[in-house]
Structure formats: C-alpha cells, structure tokens
Amino acid sequence: MSDIKTREIKGMFDGPILPVTLRLGIPILIGQVFGFLYNLVDTYFIAQIDRTSTALISGTAIIFPLFFLFLSLGNGLIIGVSTLVARGIGEKNQKALNGSSSSALFIAVIITIISLLFGYIFLKKIIFSLAGDELSDEAIEYGIQYFSYILPGLGILLIGYVFIGILQGEGLTKHIAIAMSLSTGLNIILDPVFIFVLKMGVAGAAFATTVSIAITALYVIFIFLTNQSSIPFNLNIFKAKKELVAEIVRIGAPQALSMISLSLAFIVLNNLVSSIGEAEMNSWGICGRLDQMVLIPAFSISGAHTTMIGQNYGRQIKDRLHTIYIKNTFFVMITALFLAVCYILLAPFILSLFSDVPAVIAGSVKQIRITALSFFGITIAIISAGTFQGIGKPVPALILPLIRFGVFTIPLSYIFIYFFHMHMEGIFYSVVIGNLAGAVISFFWTKNRLSNVTFRTIMAELS
To answer: From the CB of residue 115, how many other CB atoms can be counted at a distance below 10 Å?
Structure first.
C-alpha cells in the first residue's frame, strides 16, 4: 500500500486557499448540479402525468422530510468518516485509516436494517401523520406509492455514502462527481420509462430513483476494488473497530441530528402549509426543490472545506484554519447572492415548466421573490458547520439549525399566520428572518471557536 504522504494534496497545508477549494470543490459541484437536475427532472416528469393536478406534487412533497431524513443519516456518515480520514491523513495515522471503511459500514448496515423495517411496518401511519388537513385522499395515496418504492433505494444510499465519505476525506472528489452524475443520468433515462412506458406513474419515479442509486453504489464500490483509492477497503463489518465506530458517531451524529432537526422542521412547516391549502402545498413543494440551485455551491464548497479544515487541523496549523474559513465563507456568500438574483429574474419562466395552475405559479413566484436573497445566510451557516465538523467539534453544527428553525422560523410562522393573519407570506418572512439571524450567529460563533481552538488527535491507541 502507498505511503500516507502520497495522499497529500498540493497546496493543502500552505499557499493560496481558493485554488485548493476549487480543485476539491468543482468536482463536488458538478455532482451537486447533477443531483439538482435529478430533483428538477423528477419533479418535471411527475408533473407531466397531469399538469392540471395539484395532488401529484403535493403528495410527493410530503415525502420530502422522509427523504431528507435518510439524507441526514447519510450525510452524518459522510461527515463522520470523511473527517476521520482527513484527520488521519493529516496526523499520518495509518491504523485509523485501515479501519475506517469496515467501521463506517458497520454503522450504515445497522441503520439501514432498522430504517427499512420501521419504514415498511409503519408506512401508512407515517404518511398520514405528515399530511395536513387540507390534502386530498388522492395526494396521500400518491405519497404512499412514492415512499413504498423509494425506501429500498434510500437504504442502499446510506451504504454508498460510506465510500463517498472516504473519497471526500481523501480529496478524491472527482469520483464523487462521476458517481452523482451517473445516478442522475440513469434517473433521467429511467424516469420516463417507468412512469410512462411501463405506466407505473408516481411509483415509477420512485422506482427509477431506487434503481439509479443501486447501480451508482456498485460503481463506487468498484472504485475501491480497483485500488483507485489508497485507503484500505474492507467490506467485513465484523472487522469494525469500536474506537473508530465511536469516533465516527461522535463526529457524524451531531451532523445527522442537525439535518434530522431540519427534517422535523420541514415536517412542521409542511403540515402548516398543507393545512392552508393544496395549491399552496404544491407551490411550496416545487420551490423546496428549486431553491437548491442557489445553495448548490455552498454544499459543494462545504465538502471541500471540511476536508481542508480536517487535514489542516490534523497537522495543527492554527492560522490557516482561520484563513480557510474566512475566504471560503466570502466565496460562497457572493456566489449565493448572484444565483439568487438570477433565480428571482427567471422564476416565472422556470415555474411554467411545472404547472399550468395559475395559483401555483403565482404563489411560487411570490415565495422566491421574498425568500431567495436571504439564502446567502444559509450558505454562511453551511460553511460554519463544516468548520466545526472538521476540527472535531460537531455539536455547534447541531445547535445552529435548531436556533434558526426552533427559535426563529417556526415560532414566527405560527405567530404571523395565526395572530397577524399573514397567510403564506407569514411563512416566507419567517424563513427570511431565520436565515439572516442564523448567519450572524454562525459567523461569530465560528470565528470565536477558531480563535481559541485546541488540538485533539485521533485516539492514542490507534496512533
């Protein structure tokens, strides 16, 4: 096996920040763009089943928090194992790297088994609990169909994310881009086949996603089998090291819980919106998918940023940690503002692709015009969370979204709607306030932590 030094990326520990950020981040960005296209195309094909129906998008939209729940667990795994690998490379800790794959896989398999059993046993109860009072029986049935067919794919996704995390920690982000591109390309091809040719409807869209995820997972495993990664590959979960399992959970669990808290927040907001009306839920569901176009660069840079922070933290270069944070934060903030302006200008045209219902298009355009510019605040929070994860202090990454949603967005939504009778505008302005308040808190908390950072190595017994 190659020496650890061969895994070091040129410019990682000295020199300009932005070239390294772009080198690691652009492949992730490509993958994220394809991931966004997946959401866009999936929504488009579902809408084409009946462009006059509000039940189709509304029914699949109530599944979004469940989809996000699995993404949360998977993202926790990615952060846990990528941080472990990045710090292991920085520290030159071979034993930690040797046990990373089997230890992370152990966690993924356990979560997958529990999730699948729970999901199928309580499937209908879960869907009914997510639906608001104003959703039709037709919309609820669409939600049940969609979740039934996508659930196996979500389980496979968790396992695939283990290997994505290893590649991210090692800095081999080009493979991540290829994997995400492959998944999206397959989904674009399979969607019309299953939905229209095989006449599976909404269930076909979900099944196309499951098949795409499964094939992509095989591709990622192939990368390791052909030694394109220098991190030791071990599928035997019984070779897991309890110390590494604990470390992955310590770093990844707060990230997963952070995203789960977002999922719960979306459940509350979805329930509130769907109680207002099905047309409103349709608009909310479409925007929930389209909004990601503004946030894609932040998520992409965050993956690169966490790797950079983790490796420099492992090498104990304090001043560079602060420089990386400031430069990457400024970069994603400016990028988000530019994309938000484009999003606002193009909103009427984009939304006409997804519905022929005037109320749905008008509601979506209003939501975008009110909320889009505030998304730069979310990007600051995303980079801040990546910083905390990279230095092995993941708890703030859990607390920050709890503050944004629990203190600001959700309480204010109920106040604006039920006390000030602001209808959907009340939710929109609550989102804006939460995004801006979260940005301020995230930025100053992160700067303070980096000014007082202390270094902790991976367990001594693995050194």
So the answer is: 18
Judge whether 58 lies within some domain: yes
pTM score, whole prediction: 0.70
Domains: count for the chain: 1
Q: Which tens digit of pLDDT belongs to each residue from 307-362?
A: 889 888 888 888 899 999 999 999 999 999 999 999 999 988 888 887 777 888 88
Q: Does 2 map to a domain?
A: no
- CA distances for 368 relative to 154, 245, 261, 285, 290, angstroms: 29, 42, 23, 12, 9
- The crossing angle, in degrees rounded to 10, of helices 242-276 and 424-451 is 160
Asked if 268 and 306 count as a contact pair (C-beta separation under 8 A), the reply is no
The burial of 418, by beta-carbon neighbours within 10 Å (0-12 exposed, 13-18 middle, 19 or more buried), is given as: exposed
Q: Which domain holds residue 26?
A: 15-452
Rounded CA gap, 18 and 105, in Å? 33
The token pair that represents 17 in the structure block? 């920040």
Could you tell me if residue 284 is inside a domain? yes
Within a domain: residue 254? Answer: yes
CB 327 within 8 A of CB 40: no
Q: H-type helices in 171-241, by residue range?
A: 173-192, 202-225
Q: State the alpha helices, DSSP H only, in 197-317.
A: 202-225, 242-276, 278-290, 292-314
